[in-house]
Amino acid sequence: MQEEANGISLRDIFKTIFTQKWLALIIAVVITVGGVLAIQLGYNNGQKYYTSQFSLVLPEDDNEGTRYTYPDGVPFQYADMIAYKSLNAVKKSDERFADIDIDSIAKKGAISISREVNEEKETTYTLTVKASYFPNSGIARDFIVALANVPVKYLSTMDADYDVYLALYEDAEDYESEISLLNSQLDYVVGQFKELIDSYGGNFVANGKTLSAHYNEVKAYSDKNKLDVLFAQVREEGILKSEDSKDRYAAQKVEIDNRLEIAQATLDVLLKGTENSQGNIIYSDAEVLKKQSDLVQELIQQKRALEKYSASTNINPNFESSAIQPEYEKVKGFTDTLTTVVGVVYEKAASVAFTSVNAVTLSGGMGMLTSVLLSLIAGLIIACLVAYVVGVKKQKAAAPAQKEEITPDNNNGETNEANE
What we know:
- This protein has 14 helices and nine strands.
- The protein is of the alpha+beta class.
- The strands form three sheets. Strands 1, 2, 3, 8 and 9 form a five-stranded antiparallel beta sheet that branches. It has a two-stranded antiparallel sheet with strand order 4-5. The chain has a two-stranded antiparallel sheet with strand order 6-7.
- A hairpin with a 2-residue loop joins strand 4 and strand 5 (209-210).
- The two termini are 25 Å apart.
């Protein structure tokens, strides 16, 4: 018989692998499961990012989309939303964020924000942060949403100066100055509520009341003219805060006398008019005359008041606590209400609008299906190789034993044939 040519067919390979099918199956399963876990828990952690796109609506914005100044005068910088100060504040705002390593996020540049303004002047912000810093998507979402709301949070907590006249009140050295400052503060509060109504409407609810209700409450007090009555009483009775006040009033009277002399001389010149080159007298504009005349009258009144104060013996250090302090508390109360209301109004007027329903999206890395397929393919290839190698080794190990068993049979056959 003609011997078959040496060679290994594909059938032989699969036959050898099949002899080790259980080994191949175990190896394929182990590699597939290990590969999926390695990709999802290892590789993907370094490649996945949470991304959030949103727009900001800020009160009293110029709608230009690129420049904005908070009501307290601080310029808005969108990069502040991911500054370390903001990261730290957001982390401290919720105990669920306690394990987020903001130091590494900041140092390794694992967070970024960009801004895009379209042709319609609409601004969109894109905030991106590496997913590996968060234990799950829920905490990542809440943390990113909190960062996007940093400008809104600032508006509700900004330290705006709404009590400038009250601060000056503390340093006033006489009752007349104290009452004048309280009046200025009251007028300021009324004006601020009026501006809020003009901007957001009287029905805007803040601190449990509409803006119109807040305004009417302050305006009602202002219309009673209690401070004006006190001012007139102090001036008419020459009520002094202390003995030292008399010396200050005397010094002020000297200054007023000088200003009054100059003002009166200017008014006299305006009343006489000036002669032009043709010899005609040209009189000043009526409005100019009125302003100068009013100035003279005001200085005369101040002079009379100072003369009365300088000559007064009505020193009453208790007048402040008995008459002025109750009005101070009223005005301060209105000022505190204004401060609270402004914070609420600005917080409500500001908003963050996200472009996706879930606010954040997860991108990058390898999907579950892809990782399963790749791991399965790798597992099958490795399993087949290992099974084939093990199968070949077992076949080679079994071959000498089979040869030893066959040889004696052949010799016996040849001997029998010879004997015949």
